[in-house]
């Protein structure tokens, strides 16, 4: 049957049809920052750790008799002190940028979801978690330069509480941010309830075994799984390092001048540079609770490495997570 060639039909045929193609948002500056800052923090903290330990071992610096020392002891004497201060200050700046750009990414993601679904008030509750994380993450980092410049021997109390300040606030920030990531994943999943044909035709055999990496249908889900793993590992190290480790040690002892001289650390070093009083030096002697101190130093290392791993999870934030459907 031949269709009538009417003016209305010609107008409909010549009128451009609406395009439903999805356009990605341009890569905004904070997306670049959230990639660069964690890499800088990770690279610098590992380089600082390796350099300080290597210098201390090479120069035969006293480290309390531990096979793996406390990080602070490796940055006590020159030239490790300078490396320690510069390194941790750089890490602090990088972590500040990491937490801020992470918040900006989360905020943009929430705004997109709220714009797509104006009746969804779930994003407003998530924003509170994200704001708490931003404050905790940024404020915690000020402990790093403080504990670096105020060494464990010259300003013991300031150094100790600065370390507690950093690790405790970071521990809380990791938990709250992981909860926020979980809620963001639920928010984005709720906004995208439909699966593509390829996703619905996954072979039954592959769905019998739970694999969070293959099961992830979004970058927010992958980010959440990464953060959940590193948060769990961090908290294991954190509990052994601070609350449990400190509870098992009655009192930290100073290295006596006599023991210092017996270790051939140098007469001037023992009786002048590190002298506390007539019988003791400012150096710490961990022999009275050697095993527990070794556990604490290893746990401290675990906290540092898992915190680095957690910050690298922000690299899973992808710019294509922020995209608009234009009509």
Automatic annotation (TrEMBL):
UniProt KW keywords: Membrane, Transmembrane, Transmembrane helix
Keyword Transmembrane helix: yes
Domain of life the protein comes from: Eukaryota
Subcellular location: Endomembrane system
Membrane topology reported for the UniProt record: Multi-pass membrane protein
CWH43-like N-terminal domain residues: 37-242
The keyword Membrane belongs to this UniProt entry's keyword annotation: yes
Matches recorded under InterPro entries: CWH43_N (IPR019402), DRAM/TMEM150_Autophagy_Mod (IPR050911)
GO CC annotation: endomembrane system
Membrane-spanning intervals of the chain: 27-58, 78-100, 132-150, 162-182, 224-249
The name this protein goes by in its record: CWH43-like N-terminal domain-containing protein
Organism of provenance: Phytophthora fragariae
